[in-house]
Amino acid sequence: MEVVNALGRRKAAIARVFVSEGNGQITINKRDLNAYFPSPILQYVVKQPLNKLGVAEKYDIKVNLDGGGFKGQAEALRLAIARALVKINPEDKPALKSEGFMTRDPREVERKKSGQPKARKRFQFSKR
């Protein structure tokens, strides 16, 4: 099997993944998954598509992660892995789609408006 690549985004985070045959090694920015995401919850989020299909020990995954916070990065990586798995085997798409792993979360930070402290918050109104 040749290397399959895919892209995942969430908020400001961008994940580029390269999936190849292997034994379940996930390397993020030249660091191990457990070192990059110490939180077990985020490790679980990243591995969700692999566990759903039962192929966690079948592929080696190399990742370039950039931007955003750790939660956004983990969710961007989950989307990228799911997209790569569908490229490898298109029959897996309905299973991943039913769990919501194929959906790009479109929510972004609203821009700050001028004359206000934040996007929606206003400065205190003074009548006198």
From TrEMBL:
Compositional bias ranges of the Basic and acidic residues kind: 95-113
One Pfam family of this chain: Ribosomal_S9
Keyword terms of this UniProt record: Ribonucleoprotein, Ribosomal protein
Entry keyword annotation includes Transit peptide: no
Ranges annotated as biased composition (Basic residues): 114-128
Region (Disordered): 95-128
GO cellular component, one term: cytosolic small ribosomal subunit
Biological process, per Gene Ontology: translation
Alphabetized InterPro entries for the sequence: Ribosomal_Su5_D2-typ_SF, Ribosomal_uS9, Ribosomal_uS9_bac/plastid, Ribosomal_uS9_CS, Ribsml_uS5_D2-typ_fold_subgr
Family membership: Belongs to the universal ribosomal protein uS9 family.
HAMAP family: Ribosomal_uS9_B
Name assigned to this protein: 30S ribosomal protein S9
Organism encoding this protein: bioreactor metagenome
Upper classification of the organism: unclassified sequences, metagenomes, ecological metagenomes
